[in-house]
Amino acid sequence: MGRRARVIPFPKFPPQKAEPERAPGPTPFVEIRRCRDQAEALVVRSLLESEGIPVILRSHLAQSVHPFSVGDQGEIVILAPEPEAPRARVILIR
């Protein structure tokens, strides 16, 4: 008779450890307003930044490549940190 094959056991995984609590991450930004063109978005951004609220402008078009747009195609979304959002909306209502 030939030599028998050696049995290799499956590895045993160590018990799962509970994940350590994470430090709070960066503050999420939320939508404050949608502007139809870049000029309006820049005015709104200046107003909010003069009140000390950091703002991010987001658009689907590169304004330097497409300086004009038709309808909602050139829409610019204004984002602010979530804790500052209520204050930013009140400032824009005035």
Explain what the structure shows.
The protein is an alpha+beta fold and 94 residues long. Helices cover 23% and strands 18% of the residues. The chain is built from two helices and three strands. The chain has a three-stranded antiparallel sheet. It is elongated and about 90 Å long.
- Number of DSSP E strands: 3
Task: State the share of residues found in helices, binned by percent.
Answer: 10-25%
Radius of gyration: 27 Å
Class per helix and strand makeup:
alpha+beta
Overall 3D geometry? elongated
Mean pLDDT: 83
Head-to-tail CA distance between termini: 94 Å
For the biggest sheet, the summary is: 3 strands, antiparallel
Order of strands, widest sheet: 1-3-2
Q: How many distinct helices?
A: 2
How are the SSEs placed, and which strands pair?
Elements: E1 29-35, H1 38-50, E2 56-59, E3 76-81, H2 85-93
Antiparallel strand pairs: 1-3, 2-3
Quick gist of this model?
The protein is α+β, with helices and mostly antiparallel strands. Helix content is 23%, strand content 18%.
Q: What labels would you give this structure?
A:
alpha+beta, 94 residues, elongated
